[in-house]
Automatic annotation (TrEMBL):
The entry's keywords: Copper, Metal-binding, Oxidoreductase, Signal
Signal peptide boundaries: 1-16
Name listed for the protein in its UniProt record: Multicopper oxidase
Regions that span the bilayer: none
Compositional bias of kind Low complexity: 46-55
Xref: CDD domains: CuRO_1_MaLCC_like, CuRO_2_MaLCC_like, CuRO_3_MaLCC_like
Domain Plastocyanin-like: 83-190, 202-347, 427-556
Gene3D superfamilies registered for this protein in UniProt: Cupredoxins - blue copper proteins
Family: Belongs to the multicopper oxidase family.
Species annotation: Zasmidium cellare (Wine cellar mold)
Disordered: annotated span: 42-63
InterPro entries in the cross-refs: Cu-oxidase-like_N (IPR011707), Cu-oxidase_2nd (IPR001117), Cu-oxidase_C (IPR011706), Cu-oxidase_fam (IPR045087), Cu_oxidase_CS (IPR033138), Cu_oxidase_Cu_BS (IPR002355), Cupredoxin (IPR008972)
Family annotation (Pfam families): Cu-oxidase, Cu-oxidase_2, Cu-oxidase_3
Amino acid sequence: MSILSFLLGASNLVSGISQQVSNGASQLGTLDAPRLPSFLGGDSSGGSPYSNNSGQDPYNNPPNTGVVRKYEWEISRGCLAPDGFLKCGIFINGGYPGPTLEANWGDTFQITIHNNITGPEEGTSLHWHGLNQKGTPWMDGVPGASQCPIAPGSSFTYTFNADQYGSSWYHAHFSAQYTDGVFGPIVIYGPIHEQYDIDIGPVLLNDYYHTPYYQNVQASIGKRFTPSSDNNFINGKMPFDCSLAGGQQCSPNAGVSKFRFQSGAKHRLRLINSGAEGLQRFTIDGHKMTVIANDFVEVKPYQADVITLAVGQRTDIIVEGTGNPSDTFWMRSDISKFCSFTNQPHALAAIYYEDADTSSTPQSTATPYQDNNCANDALQLTEPLFQRTPPSQPSITTHIDMEFQANSTGQMVWMMNNQSFRADYNQPILLLANAGNTSYPDQPEWNVYNYGNAVSVRLVLTSIAPLHHPMHLHGHNFWVLAEGYGEWDGTIVRPENPQYRDTHQMERGDPTKGQAGQSYVVLEWLADNPGVWPMHCHIAWHLSSGMYINVMEHPDQIQNEMQVPDIMAQTCRDWWQFSGSNVVDQIDSGV
Ligand SMILES: *[C@@H]1O[C@H](CO)[C@@H](O)[C@H](O)[C@H]1NC(C)=O
Ligand SMILES: *[C@@H]1O[C@H](CO)[C@@H](O)[C@H](O)[C@H]1NC(C)=O
Ligand SMILES: *[C@@H]1O[C@H](CO)[C@@H](O)[C@H](O)[C@H]1NC(C)=O
Ligand SMILES: *[C@@H]1O[C@H](CO)[C@@H](O)[C@H](O)[C@H]1NC(C)=O
Ligand SMILES: *[C@@H]1O[C@H](CO)[C@@H](O)[C@H](O)[C@H]1NC(C)=O
Ligand SMILES: [Cu+2]
């Protein structure tokens, strides 16, 4: 039975279970979800306070508004049925997905986390994807790199600047914990360079597994081919076909996400791939989309029929309301069968124009697209709106080959130049560096690349394994200078203004072609952010198997000029105490 005929089997799109049972405290995907303002604290007619900032560099020297945005979250275990199938996971304030973080550009976030994960207890830590954390590298949320995990029963307050604007997400960085529910959207309001009328808000796209993350990690360790996801979600919803539930508790007709469109209006949608592995292809029946940003970087607008998003990536689009007031359409996101491992790739959500019956089932036809590669849109197409030119020569170039290989004890793992990563939760590298220790010859598994006082860093990444890798760098956006197969010939795409973002999709290799089948990506960034910055594949299962390095920038400044807040040492003392009297079952790389 096709997924559509399965959905159409329901007489109408009224959910058979309550929002509380399916998604807990989350309102995302319901018609009650709020439309977003153009900035916080003003009335809707006031316009953005940033509207005349059009010439300002969006990446450096963000404004400082002095406004603090406080959040208080509790992380605990619970059981929800987002797709009708009852799954016990780990949630923030009892919702799947987690709460939406909002701020204006230049505000300060202050987010207090209470770790109430019990039965069994487990550490946690939260990462704010895409934010630079300039001057606050210890707030980056990666255990073993920037902090000790937050121990069960302990609290931690993350304080950092909303230093870029646009759309992103946060997620736990403790093993693959986020894939069980510890994630949510980030919206930062800033200058608007492409006008729209209605901000629909976050549209989270993610694969979903009915098995707990720990089992998925267990099943993926030592294997190149990772477990298939069970479902695909738009804002945490897509009914599961309960005939496949294998006797587990499952309610049919759990409901799809619903969105309101207005005829004649321009709608902004903030697409976010918040998944574990699946590469998403997003379309809206009967509508064209205009891309205005990739990650936190605005681009010269271009039209697209399909948006490709690998894990960790975001694309902001504007969609014109070309439908009639009573029209309904399907919004769709498919996990690529060509690139990913999926048992049920199709996610659907319903779009209702202003006069449509919101229980009716859309009858619209899908937009066709090609699913024959795993790349992002061509680098030639994605030109940043604000020009930024890389230096003519990088200070330093590192070549990193990424392959799935046996380590010295015969276990197959992901290696970065022959070395797989494993974190030591008890010894965050940033805190060691702050104490003056920047060399770890006895810990090769920390994969530290110390770039000293280099001004810029170029990475040439290669891989011949037949799998794609969304490569993500913390603390920075990077330029994507080039990508392709074989050997890079030194050509840079649009050298005066290359593609610029924080996560880029690396194409899979083709081992049948030998050297010519090697996929490469060339990245470069200014090493202008003293700290220890993870650079890793964002596929949760590859990361668990060690596909990660730590980039250390300006160790002298980390040691001599940075005042680490006391809470960092306290968090380690709490963690040491916890891990001293409990067995911490670090099944994977730890991140
Ligand atoms: C925008 O321009 C007005 C008038 O020139 C000025 O008063 C205001 O401070 C500016 N706002 C920002 C955020 O620059
Ligand atoms: C912590 O989580 C448990 C369930 O895991 C819940 O019963 C308890 O109320 C939570 N504690 C607090 C303080 O909310
Ligand atoms: C090889 O990998 C396995 C699985 O990650 C790990 O348990 C083992 O310690 C590794 N061996 C070495 C020598 O690092
Ligand atoms: C990795 O190991 C292979 C085979 O053992 C060797 O040929 C290659 O030079 C090594 N690469 C690096 C970067 O050390
Ligand atoms: C630096 O830290 C590592 C990891 O704890 C340790 O093995 C090494 O001995 C330390 N180096 C110095 C000089 O203290
Ligand atoms: Cu990968």
